[in-house]
Amino acid sequence: MYFVNYCIRKVDKKDLDRIYEIELKCFPRDAYPKSLLSYYLFLAGDTSFVIEVNGRVVGYIIVLIRWGNLGHILSLAIDPKYRGRGLGRLLLKEAIERIKREKEIKVFRLEVRASNVPAIRLYRSLGFRYSFFRPNYYQDGEGCYVMFLRTDF
């Protein structure tokens, strides 16, 4: 690991401003409005997490439980200043493990921009598989891959 002093914890209300700041940096073309992020964090409850380095939030993941048995990863973002150091991998793996253990969720889903090669590589390396391609998913017309991870093997 590149950071000795990191912490993954559940999201707290006080994290919203920093999460929104990271959202704007990471997704400038289609960032969630702050009010929608707040709503998703409320819906997700205890299935959203932040990663801190030296006490500063540098990334987050929002996972909604859908239909009682599917973990839908709505957003995963790491502040660009902290990318390439394994933090996204740490956060994603930890979130999946905790949700699997605490909520007994065994299948996870996400959508990823077709052009986001680093994210696709990360997801594939953790076992996510392509399910289908959805054209014109984003406002700018770019499509996405819908990917799934099964953890019940």
Molecular structure report:
The chain has 153 residues and is α+β, with helices and mostly antiparallel strands. It has one domain (6-150): Aminopeptidase (3-Layer(aba) Sandwich), CATH 3.40.630. Helix content is 31%, strand content 33%. The protein is built from four helices and seven strands, in the order βααβββαβαββ. The chain has helices at 16-26, 34-44, 87-103, 117-125; strands at 6-10, 48-53, 56-66, 70-78, 107-113, 129-134, 144-150. The protein has a seven-stranded mixed beta sheet, with helices on both faces. The chain is globular. The protein starts with 5 loop residues before the first strand and ends with a strand.
Supply the CATH superfamily name.
Gcn5-related N-acetyltransferase (GNAT)
Regions with pLDDT < 50 over 5+ consecutive residues? none
**Main CATH class:** Alpha Beta
Listing every helix as H and every strand as E from the N terminus to the C terminus, the arrangement reads EHHEEEHEHEE
Helix-and-strand structural type: alpha+beta
Number of domains as seen in the coordinates:
1
Question: If you consult CATH, what is the topology?
Answer: Aminopeptidase
Query: How many distinct helices?
Result: 4
Strand proportion, as a percent range, falls in 25-35%
